[in-house]
Amino acid sequence: MANFVIDTNVGICANGRDTHASLRCQLACSDFLETCRTLHITLDNQNLIMSEYEKHFYHKGEPGMGDAFFKYLYHNQHAGDKIQLVEITPINEEKTEFAELPKNQVDPSDRKFLATAVVAKAILVNATDSDWTEQKNLLETLQIEVKQLCPEHSCK
Question: Which are the contacts of 114, defined by CB distance < 8 A and separation ≥ 6?
Fold first, then answer.
C-alpha cells in the first residue's frame, strides 16, 4: 500500500477558511482527508510537519475536515501502523535544508515534506502549492510522485 505525505495546504483547503481554493478543490481535499484512517500517512521524526499543522489546525478536531485530520494524526502518530515516522536529517539551524535532498529551489517551508517523502518513498499530496509543479524535474530525479487534488490551482 502507498504511503502519503500530505502538504498543509490540503487541510487548509478542506477547512474552507483562509484559502483561495475553489469550492471544487475544497471538496476534493475534504473527500481525500475523510479517507485518512485508511491511508498510510508518513510524518517526520523531527516533528516539523506536525508543528506546521499545529499552526493551522485546531486540536479539538473541529470545525473543519483539516482539523479532524490533524486531531487524528495528533492522537495516533505513535500508536498504530497507519502512521509512519521517518528520520530526516536537518543540516541547518532553521531546519529548512536536509541531508536527504540535493540543493534545490523548493520553498524552504516545503522541504520537510519533500525530505519526508524521499525517505518514505511516499506520494506527496498537494492542493494549491505551485512549487510541486514548478519543481517537476527535481521530483522526477528524486522519484517522487505528486497527487494533485486541485490541478487548477497547481500552477501560478
Answer: 98, 101, 104, 106, 124, 142, 144
Give per-residue pLDDT as tens, 57-84: 998 888 999 999 999 999 999 877 889 9
Topology at the third CATH level for domain 3-153: Rossmann fold (3.40.50)
Would the pTM count as exceeding 0.70?
Answer: yes
Compute the distance between CA of residue 62 and CA of residue 92 in angstroms, rounded to an integer. 35
pLDDT digits (tens, 9 = 90+) for 144-154: 999 999 998 76
Q: Are 125 and 78 in contact, with CB atoms under 8 Å apart?
A: no
| Extents of the domains making up the chain | 3-153
Strand pairing category for 83-86 and 123-126: unpaired
